[in-house]
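Comment thread on ticket #2218

A.B. wrote:
> Attaching the input chain for the structure job we discussed in standup.
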Amino acid sequence: MTGPKTTINRLFYKTLSSTVRAIASILPTTALVVGSVAIASMPSVLKQYSLDAELMMQWKLPDKLNEISGLATTSDGRLLAVDDEKAVIYEIDHEEGRIVKKFALGKPTVKGDFEGIAVADELVYVTTSEGRVFVSAEGADGQRVTFDNFDTGIGAYCEIEGLVQSTDNSRLYFLCKKARTKSGVRGLTLFAWDIAGRQLQPDESVLLPERQIMQRLRIDRFSPSGVTIDRESGNRIVVASRQRVLVELTPDGKLVNARHLPVSRHRQAEGIELVIDDKLVIADEGGTHKARLAVYPRDRTNDN
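C.D. wrote:
> Ran it. Output below, let me know if you need it in another format.
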């Protein structure tokens, strides 16, 4: 008998395979070749951000944010962060590096390995590494809020390490850090999830071009730790903490740009967000040090 997991798996990778073949068939006319690495020939959002230490700001965060994980922005542009070990949500002023408020899910506070946060239609979504999602309204400072939760099933395929909402708030995208050994998953994937229907969208999920990324950056492994979406282009910006790199991809997974982060500034980049005042914000877990929040300016005159 074929179980639901097997059916989803076959459907998902049948769709992905056809998508990859379609992309490959048009690659010669839509991409430039740098060495042996295909780079999509389109304007790069990432190129417009200066990663020079002289132009950026970086804040040391309070001890309670030492385990900071994902980042997200509200519809009015406020920055939210989730704790890595419990469902506590913080609002952070990225211009001053201070906590504005915090609220928690449940009483007692829900615990878990939280790896991502997103905000869609005024609801806050946080996901664990196993793909269980907790959703609630935004709370006031010090408030404990009620919540709903559901299992996406994506955790059966991979370890999740990032979450972001689509520009129209209809989808959640789950970033895969590591495929499960016996899951049948062929590589790192950005899984698309329909919010209203609460179901996986195989035809909108894409494999990440790992080999191209590693060749482009001259690294031997790519371990994503966070993802955000540029609202204008729809391009995905992925950060990898261990390799200290940023990667820009089109919505269908083509590589646009890839850059190294300043090593001295980023010990363990776990969260990334593009805020509405045209800044790129990256959060680093503290470990044995203070957690940090880096803010990089955008230069729109740096056209492509």
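A.B. wrote:
> Thanks. Noting for the ticket: Residues 1-8, 13-38 have pLDDT under 50 and may be disordered.
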